[in-house]
Structures are given as C-alpha cells and as structure tokens.
Write a structure and sequence with these properties.
Blueprint lengths: L1 H34 L4 H6 L7 H11 L5 H13 L13 H33 L3 H16 L2 H15 L12 H30 L2 H8 L4 H26 L1 H11 L5 H11 L2 H29 L1 H6 L1
Helix pairs in contact: 1-13, 5-8, 5-13, 6-8, 7-8, 7-11, 8-10, 8-11, 9-10, 10-13, 11-12, 12-13
Length: 312
C-alpha cells in the first residue's frame, strides 16, 4: 500500500513537473515574441503590400492583435488548454496541421541521427583501449564537438556526395538521402556522448566493486557488460535527455544545408516571417517532447540505480 502511494506520488510529481515545463516554455515564448519590435501585421503583409490602414486594423481585429497583451496571453493559454495551437498567419491553416505535416521527415532524421550517435559513442567508449588510442579518439571527439554543424554537412556532401558519389546530393527521397543529414547531426552528439561514457567507464573501473570483480578473474568484456557500464551510463543518459531535447536546433541547420523538408525549415521560415502562432506552436511541441524525454530519463535512472527508488 505504501509502495503504491509512493509510486502515485512520484507519478504526480513527474506530471506536475511536465506541466510546469510546458507552461514556462509557452509563457517565455509568448513574452519573447511580444518584446520583438515591429508590427506583426506589417510583417505578415510584406514590405511591397499596398494596404490601407483600415484593412490593417481589420486584420488586427480578426487575429485579436488589437487586444491588450494580458488578454492575448489569457486567450493563448485558453487555446492551449483546449489543444488549439491557433492559425498560421502566412499559411492560413491550423498550426497543428502545419506541424503534423512536417513532423515525419524531422522525426526520421532525428531518430536515425540518435541511432548513429549511440552506435558511434558506444564503439568509441567500449572498443578503444590504450593511452595512444584514447588520445587519438579524444582529439577526434574535440574536433567534432567544436565544429559547426553546417561545416560538417558541407564536408560530407563534398566527400561522399560529389567526390565518391556514395549518397545522393540533390534527392531528398529514400533512405540513402537520409544518411548524410543524419550523420551530420549525429557526429557532434556522438563526440559528446563518447567523452562522457569513456570518463564514466574509467571512473567506474577504479571503484572497489570493479577491483573485487577483477580479483575474482572476471574478464574485461564481462566486467563492462555486468558492472561498470551500468554505473557509467548515468551521466550519459542525463546528457542524452538534454541532447534529444535540443536536436530541433540542429535540425534547422541540417535541413537547410541539405534542402530537406521538416520542422527545422518550417521553424526558420516562421521566425523570418514572424509567423507567431507557428513559432509558439513549435515551442510548445518541443517543450512537451522535452518533458516526456526527461520523464524517461528519470525512469531510466531509477531503473539503473535502485538507491534512487528508495530515496524517492
């Protein structure tokens, strides 16, 4: 009974935290866009538009932009509670439809990038041994982490697209067209994850339980698989939660460099056109995804370390 109440309390705590994250992100996005100087109607119509002031006032009334900021904020939160993200100023369609129509390519890109990043990070952390190879891999990780994403994408296009002709450059259809963008997005993430994972493995290998296991004759592979990897994965999982939540920022650059459709390009276009409902809708969707990812990160931590469940 006590265990059930404790689990229910933890679940309510997680849900409350998720709602707080979404509300905070939505409020911060709304205030930030309101603080940007300029008239949204002027931006919506464009600099070449020859429209009378009466027509502009009518557009403001239609979109509720003539209301005080607090009234607009209350109406915005009310729509969010009902699941309504509003209408796009530029596309003249519901924001939810705009996001849903572009979510598939971005999810495919980020999903494959996460897979590549995890495989590369595990290879670098588990298979590289010895001071010399550690130095080489450490230098490579530093180069990947410090290199701009668009530069990595251009290098990959030049080498594997135009040079070796292994992957298409202009096509955006099929799995082959997805490989280079996914690797571009994955390489910096793999560099960060492998650094954290290798340091975690080295730290775990010096713990008393690891020394005891080695004294009993356990081999390197079994020591990592049964003991040290679990302890080393904690920091990597925490970092993965942050990285997964911030992948959309990288997707904006990658989708632009490779000319792919997706949420990244929609976000960039909405920011340039000051399409406020689309920008706010994407902020809310990303906040929801970030909150869900953090929930899974917390659950993964509790699964890996039973002491956290006892402490909770």
């Amino acid at each position: 009974m006590t265990s059930s109440r404790s689990a229910a309390a933890r679940l309510l705590g997680h849900l409350g935290g998720m709602l707080l994250i979404v509300w905070g992100a939505a409020t911060a996005g709304f205030l930030a866009l309101k603080l940007i100087p300029g008239d949204p109607v002027e931006v919506m119509l464009g600099v070449q538009a020859q429209v009378s002031e009466e027509t502009k006032d009518a557009i403001r009334r239609d979109w509720g932009l003539d209301q005080p900021v607090l009234v607009q904020y209350a109406q915005y939160l009310g729509r969010l509670v009902r699941g309504d993200l509003g209408q796009s100023y530029q596309l003249r369609q519901p924001v939810a439809e705009t996001i849903a129509s572009q979510a598939g390519p971005t999810l495919a890109l980020t999903g494959l990038a996460i897979g590549f990043a995890l495989v590369l990070a595990l290879i670098a952390a588990l298979l590289v041994r010895g001071r010399r190879w550690n130095s080489v891999v450490g230098l490579l990780e530093l180069v990947l982490v410090s290199s701009p994403t668009f530069w990595i994408g251009l290098v990959l296009i030049a080498v594997f697209g135009f040079g070796l002709h292994w992957f298409p450059v202009t096509s955006t259809k099929g799995f082959a067209a997805l490989v280079l963008p996914a690797i571009t997005l994955a390489l910096p993430i793999a560099g960060i994850l492998s650094q954290v994972l290798r340091q975690g493995l080295e730290a775990a290998a010096t713990q008393p339980f690891a020394l005891t296991a080695r004294a009993r004759g356990i081999g390197y592979a079994r020591l990592i698989g049964r003991h040290t990897l679990r302890h080393a994965a904690g920091d990597g999982i925490t970092l993965s939660g942050y990285i997964l939540g911030s992948l959309l920022g990288g997707a904006v650059l990658v989708e632009t460099v490779f000319g792919r459709a997706g949420l990244g390009r929609v976000t960039l276009r909405a920011v340039i056109d000051r399409d406020l409902p689309v920008v706010l809708g994407i902020i809310v969707v990303v906040a929801v995804l970030f909150a869900i990812i953090n929930l899974f990160v917390d659950l993964a931590h509790e699964a890996l370390d039973p002491r956290l469940r006892v402490a909770s």
